[in-house]
Design a protein that fits this description.
The chain is mostly helical. The protein is built from four helices and no strands.
Length: 146
C-alpha cells in the first residue's frame, strides 16, 4: 500500500515538452497559416475588384496615356482569374499541402505584378495588395519543416 496522496506522476515521454511528438506535425506553422489566410482574403478581394471592373464601376481612375493601359473590363477579368487562383491556393496552403506553398509563391508574385501594373486605376488599393503579396511570398519562402 502506498502512503502518498494525490495523483501519481507519469513518466516523461519524448516530445511531451509542449511540442508535438515526432510524426504528429501540426498542419502548418503560424506564419504559413497566416499567409494562407491572407492569400484567401486577398484573393477574394481581388475577385471583388475584378467584378467591380467588369461592371465598369465609377470607382476606378481613367489614365489616358499609360503604357499598360487595358480596357477596364480586361483588367477586371485579369483580377478575377488571379484572385480566384490565389484564394483557392490559399485554402490548400491552410491545409498544409507542399505544392500549394510553391504555387502560392507563384500566384502571389503574379498578383503583385498585376497590382503594380494596375496602380493608375486604383492606387491605394493596389499598394495595399502589393504589401500583402510581399508578406505572403516571404512567409511561404521562409518556412522550414522541422
Amino acid at each position: 500500500m502506498s502512503s502518498s496522496v494525490g495523483p501519481t506522476p507519469t513518466p516523461a515521454t519524448p516530445g511531451s515538452h509542449g511540442s508535438p511528438a515526432p510524426g504528429n506535425k501540426p498542419w502548418v506553422s503560424g506564419t504559413v497559416l497566416f499567409a494562407g489566410v491572407l492569400m484567401l482574403v486577398s484573393g477574394l478581394l481581388e475577385v471583388f475588384r475584378g467584378i467591380m471592373a467588369i461592371a465598369e464601376d465609377a470607382v476606378f481612375v481613367s489614365t489616358p496615356r499609360y503604357v499598360f493601359r487595358f480596357d477596364l473590363t480586361s483588367w477586371g477579368w485579369i483580377h478575377l482569374v488571379v484572385g480566384a487562383l490565389l484564394a483557392l491556393t490559399g485554402l490548400f496552403v491552410i491545409k498544409g499541402m507542399f505544392w500549394a506553398r510553391i504555387a502560392g509563391v507563384l500566384f502571389a508574385a503574379v498578383s503583385l505584378v498585376d497590382n503594380f501594373l494596375d496602380i493608375p486605376s486604383y492606387p491605394l488599393w493596389s499598394l495595399v495588395l502589393i504589401a500583402l503579396d510581399v508578406f505572403v511570398i516571404w512567409a511561404l519562402c521562409a518556412y522550414r519543416e522541422a
